[in-house]
Amino acid sequence: MFNDFDPIGRVTDVPMTIVGKTSLAAKDIGELIAWLRQKQDQVTYAHAGIGSAAHLCGLMLMSALNIKMNAVVYRGTGPAMNDLVGGQFDMMCDQTTGTANQIKAGTIRGFAATTKTRIPLLAELPTLDESGVKGFEVAAWHALWGPKGLPKEVLEKLTAALQGALQEPGGDRAHGWIGDGARGSGSRHARGLAGAAELGGRQMGSRDPGGRGKGQLVAQARERSRLGRRTRALERARQAPRPPALRR
Question: What domains can you pick out in the chain, each with its CATH number?
Answer without folding.
Answer: 2-9+141-204 (no CATH), 15-139 (3.40.190.10)
